[in-house]
Amino acid sequence: MSATSASAVNAAAPGRRRDLRSTLGVVIVAGFALVALVGPLLVGDPTAYVGAPLEPPSAAHWFGTTGQGQDVLAQTVVGARTTLLVGAIVGFLVVLVGAVVGATAAFFGGVVDAVLSLVVNVSLVMPGLPLIVVIAAFLPPGPVTMAVVLALTGWPWHARVVRAQVASLRRRDFVAAATVSGEPAWRIVVVELLPNLAALLGSSFIGATLYAVGAQVGLEFLGLGDLNAVTWGTNLYWATNDSALLTGSWWTFVPTGLGVATLGFGLALLGFALDERANPRLAASTGAGPGPQPTPVRRRALG
Amino acid sequence: MSGLLRRMGLYALAAWFALTLNFLLPRMMPGDPAQALFARFQGRLEPAALEALTVTLGVSTAPLGEQYLTYLGQLVRGELGISLVYFPSPVSEVIAGGLGWTMFLAGGALVVAFTLGSVLGAVAAWRRGGWLDTVAPPLLSFLGAFPYFWLAMAAVWLLGFQLGWFPVRHAYGPEVQPGFTLAFAASAVRHALLPGATMVLASLGGWVLTMRNAMMGVLDDEPIRFAQARGLPPARVFFHYGVRNALLPSLTSFGMAFGFVLSGALLTEIVFAYPGQGYLLLQAVRGQDYPLLQGLFLTITLAVLAANALVDVVVVLLDPRTRG
Fold first, then answer.
1. What H or E segment, with its residue span, contains residue B105?
2. Of A260, A268, B79, B196, which residue is 20 to 30 A from A282 by alpha carbon distance?
3. B216 CB near a chain A CB, below 8 Å?
4. Which residues contact B303 (CB under 8 A, 6 or more apart)?
């Protein structure tokens, strides 16, 4: 999903609007990070029973109350903290595993590369959600399970991207020069390769976080999360369980959903800005849709 | 052709991986879910059903290799164990009952999104910088950021309950009997409209963009300029020279998109209480029905792999360049 969203944003027009988009992305993501960081200090206990069930928004409860009589604003804000935290941790783990596997494959080449690439390609053709659900269902629910399951299933795409990048860097002259001048392998990796991978890893992290937030919300909505925790996913789970739809209590699920979507949109914008930094050719071309790109797109942009 | 063979090998390997994972999961898990299940169902199940459970969940003392062979043999015969939630129906029967509905919903949504998205993308590229080209990509990517099931919830609330335009539950109305009648078909389509529409809305952006980018490339190619220079009618240039050539990248991602849409359909079905695989998945999770859960995992995974393989074959048939 991240790839399509990011590039869809990319599509409209080059130039000044692109700066506007990356600024908007930074503002959105920073805004959510701020809410997650200090928000929970400003709202009350999200699990406290503060009013009658399913009260519409009012001065006392700006976002109304849930089917249990809890404050929706407090739940949304505190949920943002858990969801963002798990999202960022999973995003980091996913990129870490992907980078290690991808770099190993590209660096050693040969049989190692063949085996690892096969593993990556097999993992990529497996549909994600059923796999995540079946693994999560067998493990005890909780944030650790969530992080482990999502990290286990999310890394292959990033491994492929990092592998391609490292493979291309390895053939460059400056790496050859370092090898010839007798630099040890670890120094080549840390000093020569890593700085050139930084932007790619950054945009991968954003993409992985986006995936982690979406998958986490989906799993928790299914009831595979820790139902006692307050997260965006469990908020939506309880909203359906407490018949929010039947009773027309839109306020129990609209704030959380808008939160997920706005954060996702912001991350997509941010990821796109970083993608351009990682691969300047993207900035010159008009689009980078999923799947194979016909070469003329690039030719037109250059000509 | 060797490329195609390699892809097929990849799918076969992925299928084997799924089968093996499905075999190993219940046997590796901490806390032994099987024992917990036994405790729960002791006295409520017949001995025969308990025996079936034993095999499915791997509570067996036989060596692992022997268990694996037994398991594979059962799969070949289509035996997936007994469902606990829908006891005493076999899992294969329960899944078969819901598979058609999911394929109908997800397949329909995929075809509509693909067609509509490709048309929009082609038109956006044809009128580059026009209002459609300016408005559609950012709007659709914002919509694509919503979880499928949340769009479904919003649609149920607004269009279903508030405005009452659509039925919001189940796959067909209580007034019709399933069968090959017009009334039943009409009811089924009417019930699929809203869940299908939310899925189309969430997935449209990707298709628009892929098509738009591909079309942009094709439109700048010499054959198009030549066709225009020859004075062919714009419609003919658009369809015959543009769309036909630009469709290929979209087609290539059709198989992978099927996996995404199917996953989205699972959660959307839950919101609509639509009796497909997603609804069964929810029942299985809530009822800790591990045999059903595993059966669903296998069915969905194999369906996606098969769809991918099929698309690869079609692409080879359509595009001479990939025949190599």
1. helix B91-126
2. A260
3. yes
4. B103, B262
Q: Cβ(A193)–Cβ(A166) under 8 Å? A: yes
Which amino acid, A202?
Answer: G
Residue B210: which of A128, A245, A291 has the nearest Cβ? A291
- pLDDT tens for A201-241 read 888 888 888 888 888 888 888 888 777 888 888 888 888 77
Phi-psi label, residue B128: left if phi above 0, alpha if psi -120 to 50, beta otherwise: beta
In this structure, what token pair is assigned to residue B93? 């029967």
Half-sphere exposure of B243 (CA within 13 A, CB side): 18
pLDDT at B43: 61
Q: Which two tokens stand for residue A133?
A: 């659900």
Q: How is residue A250 annotated by DSSP? A: G
CB A160 within 8 Å of CB A120: yes
What local confidence, expressed as pLDDT, does residue A302 receive? 26
Nearest to A99 by CA among A25, A4, A196: A196
Burial code (b: 16+ CB inside 10 Å, e: under 16) for A206-221 equals bbbbbbbbbbbbbbbb
Residues facing A65 on adjacent strands: A71
pLDDT attached to residue A295: 29
Of B168, B206, B293, the CB nearest to A290: B206
Cis-peptide, bond into residue B88, ω within 30° of zero:
yes
**Residue B210 Cα, gap to closest chain A Cα (Å):** 5
CA A257: distance to chain centroid?
16
Q: How many residues belong to chain B?
A: 324
How many other C-beta atoms lie within 10 A of the C-beta of residue B11?
20
CB contact under 8 A, A223 and B304: no
How crowded is residue B206: how many other Cβ atoms within 10 Å of its Cβ?
Answer: 29
Looking at beta carbons, which residues of chain A come within 8 Å of B129?
13
* B281: amino acid identity, one letter: L
This prediction's pTM: 0.77
Taking only Cα atoms into account, the Rg of chain A, rounded to an integer number of angstroms, comes to 22
Residue B114, both tokens: 């693909």
| Backbone torsion region of residue A248, taken as left when φ is above 0, otherwise alpha when ψ lies between -120 and 50, otherwise beta | left
Give the helix ranges, DSSP H, for chain A. 2-11, 16-42, 72-108, 110-125, 128-138, 143-154, 156-170, 173-180, 185-187, 194-222, 232-241, 254-278, 280-284, 296-302
Q: Give the residue from chain B lying closest to A268, CA to CA.
A: B145
Average pLDDT score over residue span B220-237: 80
Most B CBs within 10 Å, among A134, A221, A250, A300, to test the B interface: A134
